[in-house]
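Before the break, one more example. Copy the sequence into your notebook; we will annotate it together after we see the structure.
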Amino acid sequence: LSAFYIPEDGRANPVDVTMSLAKGARMGGARFFEGVTVSEIVVKNGTAAGVRLATGESIAAENVVICGGMWSRQLGASAGINLPLQAAEHYYLITEPIEGLSRDMPVLEDPSTYTYYREEVGGLMLGLFEPLAATWNLDSIPDDFCFGEINPDWDRMMPHLEKAYSRVPSTINHGVRKFFCGPESFTPDLGPLVGETPELRNCYVAAGLNSLGILNGAGIGNVLAHWIVNGLPPVDVTGINVNRFTKCENTTAFRRDRTPELLGRLFGQHYHNDAPETARDVKRSVLHDRLKAAGAFFTEGHGWEMTDWFAPTPEQAKIENFSWFRQNWFDWHAQEHKAAREDVILMDMSLMSKFIVQGRDACTLLGRLSCNQIDVDPGRIVYTQWVNKAGGFEADLTVTRLERDKFLVVCGENAPGHTEMRMRRHIGSNEFVTVLDTTSATTQINIHGPRARDLMQKVSFTDMSNEAFPYLCAKEIDIGYASLLAIRVTYVGELGWELHIPTIHAVQVYDQLIEAGREFGLRHAGLQTLSSLRLEKAYRDFGVDVDNTDNPIEAGLGFAVKLDKKGGFIGRDALAAIKDRGTACNRMLQFLLQEPEPLLYGNELIYLNGDEVGYLQIGAYGHTLGAAVGIGFASTERPLTAEIVDNGDWEIDIAGQRFKAQASLRPLYDPTMERIKC
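Here is what the structure looks like once it is written out:
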């Protein structure tokens, strides 16, 4: 049994806070129009130009911000803006006054009963976030519903109330002063909707605060104000950017199925590999059934059914108990990792987002966005970052030149909307470029491991030798009856290829690979293994390890930044200034624990010579290195030189206990890249 006490916790009256913010806004020149209804957003040439009221009057504006709470979805829809947001019933009960109950008593939160407790008008408030909630008004929110109440469902809520009362037995002897039910709006991943919409320029959103409005509202307002004025957000927004969702996550059926789960997920314990259970099978690879039969356990992300790991049989593909220690699948995952380092693995990576960018000015557009030189010969692939004017990450991806005016852009499943938006927003008025999302048209199978070439040579007539098919090259090859694009690149630190297969041919190509692979010890592998392999190699992942407030120089990716390339690129001057400052005080490092037992997941504190200097972005178990491995930024008062990194006394704090760690600026696994380029 354990508990956390947070002395900084406090309380605020929402009305008083709102009035204070309004007063401050008026002092800054803001005007308020009360008692009005906005019927639509005025649009001119793809740009928000103001709002039109129900009276027919219009208010012109340089920027429009949708912050209409649970009404935001339908207001956005009127302008073609996708805002996945759904109202749900939210309950709390207030007891009659309890003698001796102090107004400044700590807020008590009990995840096991999905209840929070605090003093309210002399009584005790029991706030409920039940694990199976009820949606409210799926179609639309009534325009005239304002600070109203919903008739409470006593029968449905009574079991939850009984558990809540049992945690504080003294409340049983006090009557009920108020049992309240009102709507709160929630997003599919419980992250706010913030930022400029991809559908409409100069139209911003601050909505979907998931019952945390009084806690986060002012902060999000501050972030958005800086975003509008400066053109950039001052904090990491990769997990809250409004452009992260697709339309399928905003259908009525999706909102109906997902929302009841969200209240409990918000309040419950968040295990590193816990995924939503509702609204599943939204996006499935055509290989899904084959993978399921092979023992795949599927997790969910951004609507995708993703293979997390493989069990020996389909019946064993389940999590027996969530834990912060080794779970039942750990040893199976270790075998996948071992196969990647010693034999060969197959990974279904169809979830990767893919865009065909072509046209007369395609090279100019991608060159303007890319830090690396992408004006290469057809058949070459380039790893590059896209940054903003301050040098902060906007994307981390690959660009393959297929033809003179045709490119393939591949990024992670967590950033297709942001990547596409960035390309479209930077096409010049006199430029001709088309951007086509081809993700659903292509199945991506990755083959990796020291025996990958043996397998590929067995299924293809193309010469797969290092001389004929070198690293960072792309060719069209045949496997069976299918013509496909093979790209020699890796995200796991081993010899390998990405196979981009027309979806209609994917199953027969997969079957041939599986059959031929038996000779070479081919094994399926999932995302847990992808994570452990890439962290041993210290590969970065945008939106996980690095975000819009980080830059490639400090993140150790300066090798992919060509400051002297002809024509420059967006953010070039900012990165040049960072590099000119010399060795940075803030650098991304790789860490390897010196004990084999502890596990790392991310957010663990980093200590250098006894001082806290940062935290891990992510961690996994490095089965080849023999201990848990992670990467994170360390920030010190003086330049973080290689000598300090190599000779410092590094520790990682795990649940209050510090463990010795080795820190490194270079990958601890295959730093010379011999295994990749062989």
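The chain has 15 helices and 30 strands. Residues 56 and 100 are 56 Å apart (CA to CA). Try to locate both features in your own notes.
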